[in-house]
Amino acid sequence: xxxxxxxxxxxxxxxxxxxxxxxxxxxxxxxxxxxxxxxxxxxxxxxxxxxxxxxxxxxxxxxxxxxxxxxxxxxxxxxxxxxxxxxxxxxxxxxxxxxxxxxxxxxxxxxxxxxxxxxxxxxxxxxxxxxxxxxxxxxxxxxxxxxxxxxxxxxxxxxxxxxxxxxxxxxxxxxxxxxxxxxxxxxxxxxxxxxxxxxxxxxxxxxxxxxxxxxxxxxxxxxxxxxxxxxxxxxxxxxxxxxxxxxxxxxxxxxxxxxxxxxxxxxxxxxxxxxxxxxxxxxxxxxxxxxxxxxxxxxxxxxxxxxxxxxxxxxxxxxxxxxxxxxxxxxxxxxxxxxxxxxxxxxxxxxxxxxxxxxxxxxxxxxxxxxxxxxxxxxxxxxxxxxxxxxxxxxxxxxxxxxxxxxxxxxxxxxxxxxxxxxxxxxxxxxxxxxxxxxxxxxxxxxxxxxxxxxxxxxxxxxxxxxxxxxxxxxxxxxxxxxxxxxxxxxxxxxxxxxxxxxxxxxxxxx
Length: 511
Ligand code: KIV
What we know:
By secondary structure, the chain is α/β, with parallel strands linked by helices. The chain contains 17 helices and 18 strands.
């Protein structure tokens, strides 16, 4: 148990995250994400903005009924209807929270709300006090706080606390703050708000200048003990602070931050994938913590270091984040001999010194022409440059499928081994491709799980070639296969055999 103070994690993936252009979660997706957030052990889930639509109210109510553990919050503008709708939705929760927000900057007051400061004070007081009649857990946010006159924010915050607010959230609504400035502003609150000790300070940072995580951490250094953000950093415009970055920054640099969080890092990867899928917002490969490349090492010097000791170039353990397979050595033109040697070893290949030199030279040629040299390329290089022969275990001799909307899809396949012997079998499946793959599994006597299947057209017109790319997993390893044909069922069969042959070759060489 840590002696340091706790920072409460407030997730707003389902509210601010859903405000990203192009995102609309279904009720089921929201429930699935909320359950995953509970497993991540966040402290507060902002489940939605109930007044915004009947559907949103319903999904917040469902989350409040079904998801136990975290506080469930609903957002409300400083208006009675909003506060009432928020309560209607969150009242079912074990611990309900109403989050009231109201702009405090001159530009919002003059240009958007057309109100003066007295009006704003009155609206904030009335809305917070109505919320406090429903629940003792009320959060208040002066929107656009970082572009507001600090004196007005202090007065507004003091009034909100007087009316019953227990959390005061300082939003950097348009991502305008600079970390040192934001830290100083948060630090100034207790000195300027006489009743500040009665409420917890929170920070909510947008990423317009790419500083959302830095500002959130600065806010914590300034005294905030709640931090808001979203999974994968989704949100309005350039997004919100990314919670996985904040959680891992606090955990990795607890020596400097001197605070702790209760979130469980081993849930980070799976929830990131869930949000990526449900939101349709694909992560950039170099996204911190959860991007595809976050723990992949490509250059020779880094690979050499990581192979000697992981911590030489990794400050977090990917296994602790639930990332399948952990760190990876990626073979590219910047890779070194140590990286190549280690990959060959893991494939069970131990070339002589001369052979290794030839493999290395051939590898550099291939790497110059390709972004990444995968195991299949490596097998081809090994087979060309050494006495170790890699030959396809099976080739497709025949595939025949019967399918349609009246009957069970059935496939017959005939495969040929390197000696020209053929074997044939048939299977039924949920669809024609499934039937083909089951028939191939029967002939080859293998069990694989298909984890990815995609088909795209590589030429145009009625006689277009369809290219099928698949990924199968066997004994915990993944293999990709690809093939093109004018008949996508034939391409599917060849792509599957392509992956299967790779898997068999790797196994044979290892043996
Ligand atoms: O960005 C913002 O100001 C908000 C508030 C509602 C907290 O999302």
